[in-house]
Amino acid sequence: MARLPANEIPARADIAAVLNRSADLVLVLSSTWVYTSAVRFEIDVYKREPTVPLATYGFGRPERGSTFLLAFEWADDTISSNLPISELHGGLVHAGSHGGPQQAHITLRLDHLPPAGEFVIHSAWPYFDLAEDQVSFEAQRIIDAVEHVQTLWPQEVPSFTASDTAPTTVDGVLEAPTTGWFGRQFTAATQRSKTTDPEGTGFHVTPG
User: Could you tell me the pTM of the whole model?
Assistant: First the structure.
């Protein structure tokens, strides 16, 4: 799964609009950010009354209240969506979300640039009776934004892995503090659990 380039400052494309709305719920594409080989979409949700947390993940992940439905229909008839069918993801992935029962923010990432031509964003939220709707945009706005992307330095493959920094079974054992606030917290927790085996706690106690 491709990630957003870590060596680029993205350019903002002129693609933003209300995607769908009812009397009680509004779904907004608030901004579109372009990289040389990917696109980031920022979406905001506004709800009049708080009822249940707004489920915003999608892609088949079980959520309370059911998530919204979103799909990009590109000019070449391909589809990128958050539907629970991998064949219809089309390079679109959930890249983060947060919020509550009245407002939420979602970041979606597309792992490629779209083909030139008009594309359509379809949306609906059946759980909240938000009927299906669609809005059209011109993909050329995304393509044109690529020339404004700033590449900071050449992309390099990391020279280390997680295993490089993992503690060893001997030298890397974490020593528990025995003085100060941290020492008091650890000592109290150890006494509460009545654990005397260092392997049971995951720490090696060094007398102060």
Answer: 0.75
